[in-house]
């Protein structure tokens, strides 16, 4: 892993994984509400190693990492969403221009999942999108403007009411159907919110109550199936020649 600067005018920090991999495709990974902590770095490294490609994690929180939910929601409340979307675009262009990636996918988790869908609708250069348990507000993302294939994963036991609970997930799928968006939609009966975070990848500095809540919604079988589905989806939509 290496730390890189994506632009000079206003510094955007990102973390690059698999920098020596030579695949013709790359992935931008968008972090959860906790910021770029150990958990998201472990996920990014796992993706880079499995696909032998470059994976870039832009730090959308400007170096801030939350340990408690109150701290995380405060940081999120201060975000300039238009700047966040712009930063994601810069990350996509960085992989294309600096590392010659002919295809770039965006993968996001929770807050990052919502932003991944937003990027699929609003960022040039995105070839496909994988969203894990994240739904953007309508004022941020016009679902009808998504023009790339998307894959979505939700846990049936998701307790994030009004954000990614089952009712909200099914509502989103119906909107995608009505809009004619090319999409795959999966619900995992044994999983809750954050089920892609393995217990051995939990950030040790997260509050114990948060780690316990994530653990209660984790299901290893669901994670394994979702990971394999994600890999298959990305490889189908990347230009790998």
Automatic annotation (TrEMBL):
Query: Could you tell me what this protein is called?
Result: Dienelactone hydrolase domain-containing protein
Work out whether the entry's keyword set contains Ubl conjugation. Answer: no
Q: Which SUPFAM superfamilies match?
A: alpha/beta-Hydrolases (SSF53474)
Instruction: Give the transmembrane ranges.
Output: 103-123
Domain of life according to the entry: Eukaryota
Listed A to Z, the keywords are: Membrane, Transmembrane, Transmembrane helix
Q: One MF term in GO for this entry?
A: hydrolase activity
Please tell me the species this chain comes from.
Answer: Galdieria yellowstonensis
Q: Where is the Dienelactone hydrolase domain?
A: 13-237
């Amino acid at each position: 892993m290496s730390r890189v600067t994506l632009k000079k005018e206003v510094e955007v920090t990102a973390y690059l994984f698999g920098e020596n991999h030579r695949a013709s495709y790359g992935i931008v990974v968008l972090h959860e509400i906790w910021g770029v902590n150990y958990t998201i770095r472990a996920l990014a490294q796992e993706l880079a190693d499995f696909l032998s490609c470059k994976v870039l994690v832009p730090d959308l929180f400007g170096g801030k990492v939350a340990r408690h939910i109150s701290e995380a929601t405060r940081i999120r409340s201060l975000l300039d969403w238009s700047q966040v979307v712009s930063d994601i675009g810069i990350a996509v262009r960085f992989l294309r221009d600096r590392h010659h990636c002919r295809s770039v996918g965006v993968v996001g988790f929770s807050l990052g999942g919502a932003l991944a869908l937003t990027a699929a609708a609003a960022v040039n250069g995105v070839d496909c999108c994988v969203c894990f348990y994240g739904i953007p507000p309508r004022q941020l993302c016009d679902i009808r403007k998504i023009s790339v294939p998307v894959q979505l994963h939700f846990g049936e036991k998701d307790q994030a009411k009004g954000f990614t609970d089952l009712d909200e997930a099914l509502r989103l799928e119906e909107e995608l159907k009505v809009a004619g968006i090319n999409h795959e939609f999966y619900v995992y009966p044994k999983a809750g919110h954050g089920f892609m975070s393995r217990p051995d990848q939990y950030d040790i500095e997260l509050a114990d109550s948060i780690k316990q809540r994530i653990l209660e919604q984790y299901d290893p079988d669901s994670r394994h199936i979702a990971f394999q589905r994600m890999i298959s989806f990305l490889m189908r939509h990347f230009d790998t020649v």
